[in-house]
Backbone:
């Protein structure tokens, strides 16, 4: 069975699967005036699925006013250039990842393990370069669908961010935490600095929210904060 083109996470917040049913996700936030903010753009071939997801919400590419990227990796920024062209929307990303988005090259990965060094030799971290119109900073509250707070969670990439939609109390973790066969940290070999990524993920346990959306894996809509805090407490002891 084909995955649904879009999944409601909270009022005005929708997950758009771009690979499988939830392997890689983008998000659409719909404002009161009907405009859309898109969070992440999947791999280079993802725009077709994003457009289909928007259509399922009764939206067209022209309704997208802003594209936010959680970080500069090919499975999150790969479709940014095409989506910017289709929508006319500007690209925003944390200032520490902006240079990577504009060069179309991922940050270097963590080479502190054997697997990390092997992965560094094998990976092709390139994606279509695209201009960045806005550089985000930690704690910034964007005028998006009632307020979207930027939460810096570096380590997966130097400028990785999570996002808190304050009106619906919905957290989007980016790759700070995966929900793949349970909650987990991003694998070390995929991170720029694995130890930093683990450490900064604990910020997410201190926030207030009711639902959590993941860029890898399905959302949690019941007991979300408790689930995240429990995972972080266990991972701190590991």
Residues:
């Amino acid at each position: 069975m084909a995955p649904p083109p879009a999944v409601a996470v909270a009022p005005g917040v929708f997950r758009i699967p771009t690979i499988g049913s939830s392997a890689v996700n983008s998000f659409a936030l719909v404002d009161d005036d009907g405009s859309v903010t898109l969070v992440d753009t999947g791999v280079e071939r993802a725009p077709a699925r994003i457009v289909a997801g928007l259509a399922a919400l009764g939206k067209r590419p022209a309704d997208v006013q802003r594209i936010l990227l959680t970080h500069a990796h090919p499975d999150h920024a790969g479709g940014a250039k095409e989506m910017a062209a289709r929508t006319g929307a500007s690209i925003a990303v944390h200032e520490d990842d902006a240079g990577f988005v504009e060069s179309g090259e991922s940050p270097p990965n963590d080479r502190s393990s054997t697997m990390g060094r092997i992965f560094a030799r094998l990976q092709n971290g390139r994606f279509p370069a695209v201009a960045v119109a806005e550089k985000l900073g930690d704690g910034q509250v964007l005028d998006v669908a009632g307020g979207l707070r930027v939460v810096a969670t570096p380590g997966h990439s130097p400028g990785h961010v999570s996002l808190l939609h304050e009106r619906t109390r919905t957290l989007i973790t980016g790759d700070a935490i995966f929900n793949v066969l349970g909650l987990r940290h991003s694998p070390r070999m995929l991170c720029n600095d694995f130890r930093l990524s683990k450490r900064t993920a604990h910020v997410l346990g201190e926030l207030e929210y009711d639902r959590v959306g993941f860029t890898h894996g399905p959302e949690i809509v019941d007991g979300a904060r408790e689930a995240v805090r429990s995972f972080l407490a266990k991972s701190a002891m590991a």
